[in-house]
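Priority: medium. Attachment 1 of 2:
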């Protein structure tokens, strides 16, 4: 699933490409009986409302809240996209061939859009400059809707870890809302802190030298500060590398990020730890229903 760095990378790309453009058409083939009344475009009756509310609008902004992309429209509404597990937004020029039932949208340019991971288009905005914004989503889990200022879709989300106003004191207070929780699971709880998922939790804990099974209540103040700094450094590093493309994620130009080429822990099972002088080996365990990767030498379980 795209995490904070991938979502921020996408938002940065949208600011460079679609802000100022006018939406002239909206298309989607999402349609699921399980989403009737959901207030998302997977409900076809809602999609009619969505299309009416977006066609003819200009895009005025692109922002991020947690793992949500927020696209501001000239009519005052906000288009929300949550990419979920396999979704990513793509900007380029497409042609539409109704005869191609499975993948009717064919990318023309740039060439990077022709990556096989980009072909599963289920939502499309067409603009007045002849370009398009596509949502490729092989698992069809993504969420697209229109929201207002007090939307339920943004309810109960924790603070943003990269905000300058987010302090060490606040960080410790947030984690200690679940003092008996395993630290990896607590970090991934979006009600505690926004935007951290499986990859960046592993990488941050590796950097801080904390075992993923460590209970929050046993983390010392020194280790807590180390984790606070590690999260900020790791997420910023992820943005600098343009996100992680271990799985499906691509940026708005259809290109891979490079963070997956620079992991310290995630999916490095059995490899030597990269921490200078450590000499440990990266191990994999299950924490809840998710995998966790850690060094068996410098991430010893204390609690």
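Attachment 2 of 2:
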């Amino acid at each position: 699933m795209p995490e904070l760095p991938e979502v921020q990378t996408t938002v940065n790309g949208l600011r460079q490409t679609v802000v100022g453009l006018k939406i002239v058409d909206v298309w989607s083939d999402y349609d699921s009986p399980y989403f009737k009344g959901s207030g998302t475009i997977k409900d076809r009756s809602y999609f009619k409302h969505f299309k009416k509310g977006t066609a003819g609008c200009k895009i005025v902004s692109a922002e991020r809240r947690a793992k949500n992309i927020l696209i501001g429209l000239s009519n005052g509404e906000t288009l929300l996209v949550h990419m979920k597990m396999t979704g990513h937004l793509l900007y380029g020029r497409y042609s539409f061939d109704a005869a191609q039932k499975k993948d009717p949208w064919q990318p023309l340019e740039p060439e990077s859009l022709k990556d096989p991971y980009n072909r599963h288009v289920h939502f499309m905005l067409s603009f007045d400059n002849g370009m398009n914004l596509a949502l490729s989503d092989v698992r069809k889990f993504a969420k697209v809707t229109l929201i207002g200022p007090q939307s339920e879709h943004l309810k109960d989300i924790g603070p943003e870890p990269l905000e300058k106003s987010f302090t060490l004191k606040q960080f410790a207070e947030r984690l200690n809302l679940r003092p008996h929780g395993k630290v990896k699971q607590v970090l991934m709880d979006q009600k505690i802190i926004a935007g951290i998922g499986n990859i960046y939790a592993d990488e941050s804990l590796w950097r801080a030298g904390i075992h993923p099974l460590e209970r929050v209540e046993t983390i010392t103040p020194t280790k807590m500060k180390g984790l606070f700094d590690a999260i900020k450094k790791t997420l910023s590093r992820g943005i600098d590398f343009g996100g992680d493309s271990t799985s499906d994620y691509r940026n708005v130009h259809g290109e891979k990020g490079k963070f997956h080429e620079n992991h310290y822990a995630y999916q490095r099972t059995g490899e030597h730890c990269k921490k200078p002088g450590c000499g440990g080996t990266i191990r994999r365990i299950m924490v809840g229903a998710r995998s966790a990767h850690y060094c068996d030498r410098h991430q010893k379980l204390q609690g």
